[in-house]
Amino acid sequence: MNEGYIYLLIAIISGCIGNIMAKESKGFTKIIPSTTGAIFFLICIYCFSITLKTIPLGLTYITYSSILVLFTTLFGICFYNESFNKYTILGSILVLSGITIIYYKKN
Length: 107
Prior knowledge:
Elements: H1 3-24, H2 31-51, H3 57-79, H4 86-106
């Protein structure tokens, strides 16, 4: 497996944690979630840049942003009781379909 995908996974996970901490910081009024979020965003940017050594920018970015949005949406639904409807589900299915098509056509 290309090591770029390992760094991409770390970037996605740390980006998701950074997003969660941004919400927990209540507009950066809480110091620990604010600091934790900033640290995880730095990890995210570092790993993302390492990923770009082996995976093209377009493919990296579409994968990173799409999966990050899906993970963050699922986390919000599961842990913050954020609402979802048929459009959220349809949009998520379309995003996953798009990623699948891109990777299928890549090979």
